[in-house]
Amino acid sequence: MDKLLLHVGPTTIKEDVLVAGLENNVGFTSKEFVEALAYSLKGLRYVMGASKNYQPLIIPGGGTSAMESVTSLLKPNDKILVVSNGVFGDRWEQIFKRYPVNVKVLRPSPGDYVKPGEVEEEVRKSEYKLVALTHVETSTGVREPVKDVINKIRKYVELIVVDGVSSVGAEEVKAEEWNVDVYLTASQKALGSAAGLGLLLLSPKALSILDSQNSIAGYYLDLRNWLPVMRGAEEGKAAYFATPPVHVILQLAEAFRLIEKEGIENRIKRHTMVASAIRAGLEALGLEIVARRPESYSNTVTGVILKVADPQKVLAGTVNEGVEFAPGVHPAFKYFRIGHMGWVTPNDAIIAISVIERTLRKLGEPIRFGEGVKAVEEVLFSAR
Question: Could you tell me which residue ranges the Aminotransferase class V domain spans (predicted)?
Fold first, then answer.
């Protein structure tokens, strides 16, 4: 039986994207690779809403390597404010605490988000070099209103960095219009490509800092070392710092081609529709969602709280039914997570809720059996 992957990343990969990585005899100086890298850099500007004033970079690793590379913009004793809505927001703190900088963290109660006014209050009290935000918290599915936060704090801080690992390609992102200094993401989530790449977009201000000062960054993740490779590719020239994951970048270029074909606005609408349908189905079943406030629901991740059933047994049961969901990772909840991003379709929403209904009934979770799929269908019908 074919399995439907509704994990929080990696997500399902289209066959065209997979096949793009099967090219043989392609090296990092090959014309095919240089063109794929240049196209991917252009695609990153497109999905993040930026002009050529912003510099994209694609580095090996993933979301965490992109996050740690932000140390390229920092000096010893810089003050950093982390706005964390969960486990992956906390990762900013874990990264920065390994370097000689000063870090403070703002946190809400579990399932909630830090309000824009709270961030403003903090940055007005103390001078911070950098504020790190998480657009969508993967552990809870909570979306931070980053545009509203930026509007309130922009004049008080030098650098604003947004982790868009679980948002870019599925949520509205306008890095240049919102005046973000670094927007970062990864290849394996809403962009629908293979895992293995960290992607960043830097503002002119961030670039000027990169060009003008030494930093606390290490060697491999120092963006100064990768910048000539990116600039070279956009000029049609091969450049070398370290061996890039050539075939993963070939796949990413194909993913960007398909995204451009769909159109980013249409892609966001599709994600919004599928996410709304899934949550309607869960609520119709009588299940509680981890994200406490509807305005913070995301287009990409939904956490589902369980009263009776063991989450691990739920995951095992749904896999037996042909759908793989993600385990919960936040210690405050007994839950599992649904990833609805990338190439997800309206029919996937129907399948997901149908499998959840049957599995939870078998495991004795109190639900309104049969109501979930009906609610999904109503949302999808109304959206057409």
Answer: 29-332
